[in-house]
Each structure stands twice: as C-alpha cells, then as structure tokens.
Design brief:
Order of helices and strands: HHHHHHHHHHHHHEHHEE
Largest sheet: 3 strands, antiparallel
Oligomer: single chain
Shape: globular
CATH topology of the largest domain: Endonuclease III, domain 1
Strand content: under 5%
Radius of gyration: 23 Å
Mean pLDDT: 92
C-alpha cells in the first residue's frame, strides 16, 4: 500500500509557518534590498554555499550597487572581486547582464521572466527565482533543495532524480500557491527547508514540520534505490587547475610570465610537471577562450621571458 501523500493546504501551512520562525536573516532577503541585489545573490549562490556568498555579496553591492555601476567596471575588476566563489565565468556573465540591463531596460532589472531569461548567464531557475524573490511574482522555482523536499514529502523517495525531470517540474508547479505574494514565500521556504533540515545527508526529520505527513518517513525512510552517486573529485581536476590559475593572477597587479604562472600552479597543487604540464596549458587556453584571462607580450611582465614569450593577466 503506497504511503499517504500530504495535501496541498497542509504542505503550505506547515512549511510557511516553519519558515516564518526559522528563516535565516540573509542580507538579500532584507526588504530594502533592490531587485538587482537579489539577482546578484542568485548568480553568486549557484553551486556555492551561502556562507561563502554573503561577504562577497556585501562587497559587490557596496562597490557596484546598480547595473550601471557594474557595467562600467572592467572584466578584470569583476573577476578579481569574485574571489574564491568558484566558476568565475559567472562574474563575467553578471557584468554582461548588467550591460544588457543598461542598454535594453534603462538600467532597471526587468521583472518579466522572459526578459530575465534573455539576459546573459540567466537560465530558467535564475529567472524564476528573481521574478519571485525580487518582484513577488508567481513563478515555479526548482532547485536541488526543492526537488529533494518534494521527492521525500510527496513521492516517498529518498532523493530526487540525478537530473531535473518534466515530472518534477509539474509537481513543483502544482504546489505553488495561487496568490503571487504567498507563492514567492513558498518558493524560498521550501528551499530553506531543504537546505537546513531535509538535507541530502543526515536529514533532521525530528525537526521537520512535515515529519508526520511525509511520504518518505511513512514508508520507513527507505534508502535511495537509484544508481550509485559518486562524489565529485577535486584534486588535480581541470576545475581546480583553472581556479588556481585565476587565483595566482588575482594576487598579482601586473601580468605574470606564462612560464612562471604555470610553474606556480604546478607547485601550489603539488602536481608533477611531466604529467600535468599539458593539462595546465590546456586549462590556461580554455580560460583565454572564455575571456577570463588574456595574454600579452612577456615584456609587460616584471619578470619577463625570452623575446617572443607570453605573459598572462586578468582581462583589462
């Protein structure tokens, strides 16, 4: 016999009441935060823990409080200010979005989801989240936390599917309250519940407002029956190498001779030059292609190379 499924009204009441008492006081949730500030927070928080985002977000909003201010910054400035948030390409896309907002919308972030999706670096999730959290629009916000809460509470599964499915999107849409203001709170409340209580590992079911109506708990909290999910490797990956290349350049005001840059990365990561020199070279080439760094004549570096060599810097 399948476990009981909690009703829509019960889910709304339980989750919204829990959020009212337990929401984290994040700065971008402050009523005085501008829509642009909310947008910046959503881009920064993609695949990045909130604890790492908050100090960088505060610095960015003090330095570039409007789309026009960020649009006037140089690409190198924004990559440097991105710090260690990871995936620094997001910094460039955020600046490109600021330029588009200035050129297309008079410097004011649009509230319409279609217009938001048309901005550089903005996908379905970010457009829906900004429409909800910045403008109070009714939208369907689906991230990994939302998917996990609904998979457990409604479907009785330990974990959501590895990738977002159409069925998950339909389920999430069916549960969004009809009232726009309530729907915006519901979206962030379910996300918060997944982040703080209904975690992937070690869920605190005893602290969950849905424990007594959760289909997964009612089924005995069965383990995930899908394929084994491997943790992501990190040391020696292209992502780590790319991040270290950018970090070395952030720490230098002047261009760095390419040979010295690559040697520094190998040393910092403890990688063997014979085995990983080609990887570092490939990662550097990919950063150049992505516009995150640029090459200049070696003569521009304080410690240059032989004539004809190259130096590398953040984009001007």
């Amino acid at each position: 016999m399948p476990p009981p499924v909690p009703g829509r009204e019960v889910l709304h009441r339980r989750v919204l009441d829990w959020f009212a008492a337990n929401a984290r006081p994040l700065p971008w949730r402050d009523p005085t935060t501008t829509p642009w500030g909310v947008h910046v927070s959503e881009v920064m928080a993609q695949q990045t823990p909130v604890a790492r985002v908050e100090p960088v977000w505060r610095e960015w909003m003090e330095r570039w409080p409007t789309p026009a201010a960020l649009a006037a910054a140089t690409p190198g400035d924004v990559v440097r200010a991105w710090g260690r948030l990871g995936y620094p390409r997001r910094a460039l896309r955020l600046r490109e979005a600021a330029v588009a907002v200035v050129e297309r919308h008079g410097g004011e972030l649009p509230a319409d989801e279609d217009a938001l999706r048309a901005l550089p670096g903005v996908g379905t999730y970010t457009a829906a989240a900004v429409a909800a959290f910045a403008f109070g629009r009714r939208s369907v916000v689906v991230d990994t936390n939302v998917r996990r809460v609904l998979a457990r509470a409604v479907e009785g599964r330990a974990l959501a599917s590895p990738s977002l499915t159409a069925a998950e999107t339909r389920l999430a849409a069916s549960l969004v309250p009809d009232d726009p203001a309530t729907s915006a709170v519901w979206n962030v409340a379910v996300m918060e519940l997944g982040a703080l209580v209904c975690r992937a590992r070690g869920p605190e079911c005893g602290a969950c407002p849905l424990e007594d109506v959760c289909a997964w708990v009612a089924a005995g909290s069965p383990p995930d029956d899908g394929p084994a999910r491997r943790g992501q490797a990190w040391h020696g990956t292209d992502r780590q190498v790319r991040g270290t290349l950018v970090q070395v350049l952030r720490e230098n005001e002047h261009p760095v001779a390419r040979r010295l840059l690559e040697d520094e990365v190998l040393t910092r990561l403890g990688l063997d030059a014979h085995r990983h020199a080609a990887q570092v070279d490939r990662c550097l080439a990919s950063l150049v292609e992505d516009g995150l760094v640029e090459t200049v004549p070696a003569a521009e570096a304080p410690e240059g190379e032989a004539p004809g060599g190259e130096a590398v810097r953040l984009p001007a």
